[in-house]
TrEMBL record:
Chief localisation class: membrane
GO molecular function: transmembrane transporter activity
Protein name: Major facilitator superfamily protein
Compositionally biased residues, Basic and acidic residues: 245-254
Keyword Transmembrane helix tagged: yes
Organism this protein belongs to: Halalkalicoccus paucihalophilus
Residue ranges crossing the lipid bilayer per the database entry: 20-37, 49-66, 72-91, 121-142, 208-229
InterPro entries attached to this UniProt entry: MFS, MFS_trans_sf
Topology in membrane: Multi-pass membrane protein
Length: 254
C-alpha cells in the first residue's frame, strides 16, 4: 500500500485518482473475502485458510513483480491486485477470529485493542523497511547508471553507497526549479539517457522491494505452522474477584 502507489505516481506518472483505481481490486477483494469467508471455518480449519491466504498473497506479489515494467497499465494490475486481495482477506479475517476465539469474552475489548495496536505497529514497521529498501535501491541504481554512462566503469560498493547518500541529500535540498534548470543545461541525448536511467532504477527498486515482501510472506507462512489446527474454545468470563461469602454479605446488607 506504500510502495505500489509511489511507483505508479513517480515512475509511471499516474495521478492519485489513477493509483486509487489501480488498487481498487485489492481493496474490493480484501473486503469481500474477509466478510464472506467467516463461515468457511465450519468446513476447513482456520489455520489452513490462513496459510492459503498467505499463498495467494505471495503468488499475487510474484505476478505483480513479473508485470512491473514501464508499460504497466491499470488493466495489467487487475489480476495481481485481485489475487493479493483474496489472500489478504482470507488471512486477516481468519487470523483475527482465531486469535479472538482464544481470549475470554471478558477480555475481548482489551485483546481487540492489542490486535489493532500491533497491526498499526506492523504496518509502520513494514512501511519503513519497504520504503528504505525502495529508496536505497533506487539511488544506488541511479549512481550505477550515471557512472557507467559518464566514465564507462562500474563503481565500487563503498563509493556507490557514498554517492547514493550524496544524491539523496542533493535531491532533498534542491528545489524543483533548480532540478529543471540543471536538466535543461544538458544536451538532449544526455537528458534522454538520464530519464531512462531514472526510469530503469525505479522499476528495479520496485521489483526488488516486492521480492523482499514475498520473503516476508514466506517467513509468515512458516510461523503460521505454530497456529492451532482446531479453533480454541472461548471461556465465558473472567474469574470472580470477590468471595461468595462477601457477595452474600453485600447483597443482604449484613
Amino acid at each position: 500500500m506504500f510502495t505500489v502507489p509511489v511507483f505508479l505516481q513517480s515512475a509511471l506518472g499516474y495521478s492519485a485518482f489513477d493509483s486509487g483505481v489501480a488498487l481498487l481490486p485489492f481493496s474490493a477483494f480484501t473486503l469481500v473475502v474477509a466478510v464472506g469467508s467467516t463461515g468457511w471455518r465450519r468446513y476447513v480449519a482456520q489455520k489452513r485458510l490462513i496459510q492459503l491466504g498467505l499463498v495467494f498473497i505471495g503468488a499475487g506479489l510474484l505476478v505483480l513483480t513479473q508485470r512491473t515494467a514501464p508499460d504497466l497499465t491499470i488493466t495489467g494490475m487487475i489480476l495481481p491486485m485481485a489475487i493479493i486481495g483474496i489472500g489478504l482477506g482470507l488471512f486477516t479475517g481468519q487470523l483475527v477470529d482465531l486469535t479472538m476465539s482464544s481470549v475470554p469474552e471478558a477480555f475481548s475489548e482489551v485483546s481487540s485493542g492489542v490486535i489493532n495496536s500491533l497491526s498499526q505497529l506492523g504496518y509502520a514497521f513494514g512501511t519503513a523497511v519497504a520504503g528504505s529498501i525502495q529508496l536505497g535501491v533506487f539511488y544506488g541504481s541511479v549512481v550505477d547508471g550515471v557512472t557507467l554512462v559518464s566514465s564507462g566503469e562500474e563503481v565500487s560498493g563503498d563509493e556507490r553507497r557514498r554517492l547514493a547518500v550524496k544524491l539523496e541529500d542533493a535531491l532533498e535540498t534542491t528545489t524543483q526549479a533548480q532540478q529543471e534548470a540543471f536538466e535543461s543545461g544538458l544536451s538532449p541525448d544526455l537528458q534522454q539517457q538520464l530519464s531512462q536511467i531514472i526510469l530503469d532504477a525505479m522499476v528495479t527498486a520496485q521489483q526488488i522491494v516486492l521480492v523482499v515482501i514475498v520473503l516476508f510472506v514466506l517467513v509468515t507462512l512458516l510461523v503460521s505452522s505454530f497456529l492451532p489446527l482446531k479453533r480454541p474454545r472461548r471461556s465465558g468470563s473472567r474469574a470472580p474477584t470477590t468471595a461468595p461469602e462477601e457477595e452474600k454479605t453485600t447483597s443482604t446488607g449484613e
